[in-house]
Amino acid sequence: MITVENLSKVYDGTTVVDAVSMVIEKNTTTVIVGTSGSGKSTLLRMINRLVEPTGGRVLIEGRDTREEPAHLLRRRIGYAIQGHGLFPHRTVAENIGTVPQLLGWSAARIQARVEELLQVFQLDPKAYADAMPHELSGGQQQRVGVARALAAEPAVLLMDEPFGALDPIIRAKAQEDLLEIRRRFGTTIVLVTHDMDEAFHLGDRVAVMSGGRLLQYDRPARLLTQPADPFVARMTGMGDRAMRLLSLTTAGEAALPGRGSGPAVTASASLREALSELVWQGADSAQVVDADGTARGHLTLDAILRHGRPS
Q1: Per-residue pLDDT tens over the stretch 219-236
Q2: Is 235 within 8 Å of 208 (Cβ atoms)?
Q3: Dihedrals φ, ψ of 75, to 5°?
Q4: Considering only Cβ atoms within 10 Å of each terminal Cβ, which end of the chain, N or C, has fewer?
């Protein structure tokens, strides 16, 4: 879907992105992490040419992004940033419809798309379409910002620290919204964050950067169990890597046959959450159930702990 080949950016003799190469598969979420100044945001912005590369190239579905004017490229790539960036003088509907209007969509098609996206983000079109950004909460503004990025049905969505300004409860909801977007629309997502828990929760693959270089690009479990170097190990968290490894598997995926006993945990809960519940309840096993209460199996404390160790 997206191929990055030896991409570099140099500012006044300083290399901020140094010959990065990576392949991002269609309908996946790739998360780029790194410390401040690692080049992660610059790398993201070179994909849609908000920043022009000094060297290398980006291909989307095999086509070099330099083959079309930058402003046309950006209209077919969604882009969402921290703080949402809504136009304060436009209504919610007008904000979401910005790019479709530039693309010449009919008014009826734009309205239908606006209503669809508002419903996806659980914002009643009757209540919110004509609202102004300042009338919304921070979480609602962020959802509208992502809806605007998705309005023209882009195959690619770029996100630069999109949830950094949200409080923990709203941030968790925004992350689940993003996972639902990918499931529903098949969007290929590239997201920049400094939060490793967020990276592991959202990313099919995670790219770790430092000093402009790509140190490792891999699945979360391999980053935890086979870090490429000490910096990657520190970034992924040596002190709590067992807990992070448990967060990558759900109770439903790890459930053992049979109903079992003890407290109930939902199949969608992570093993990290299941372990926390067992410790809290002082239990050695738990029942695994679907959201409607249907039994899915059971988990034991020993079975959970095995998943927290490298295989």
Answers
A1: 999 999 999 999 999 988
A2: yes
A3: -70, -20
A4: C
Q: How far apart are the first and last CA of the chain?
A: 31
pLDDT at 241: 87
Instruction: Give the phi and the psi of residue 17 in degrees, each rounded to 5.
Output: -135, 125
Higher pLDDT, 1 or 167: 1
pLDDT at 95 over 90: yes
Q: Both tokens of residue 63? A: 């086509």
**Amino acid type, 116:** E
Identify residue 76 by its one-letter amino acid code.
Answer: R
**Ramachandran assignment for 142, one of left (phi > 0), alpha (psi -120 to 50 degrees), beta (any other):** alpha
Mind giving me the DSSP string for the chain? -EEEEEEEEEETTEEEEEEEEEEE-TT-EEEEEESTTSSHHHHHHHHTTSS--SEEEEEETTEEGGGS-HHHHHHTEEEEETT----TTS-HHHHHTHHHHHTT--HHHHHHHHHHHHHHTT--HHHHTT--GGGS-HHHHHHHHHHHHHTT--SEEEEESTTTTS-HHHHHHHHHHHHHHHHHH--EEEEE-S-HHHHHHH-SEEEEEETTEEEEEE-HHHHHHS-SSHHHHHHH-GGGHHHHHHTTSBHHHHPBSS---SSEEETTSBHHHHHHHHHHHT-SEEEEE-TTS-EEEEEEHHHHHHHTS--
Which single residue is written with the structure tokens 């269609």?
Answer: 26
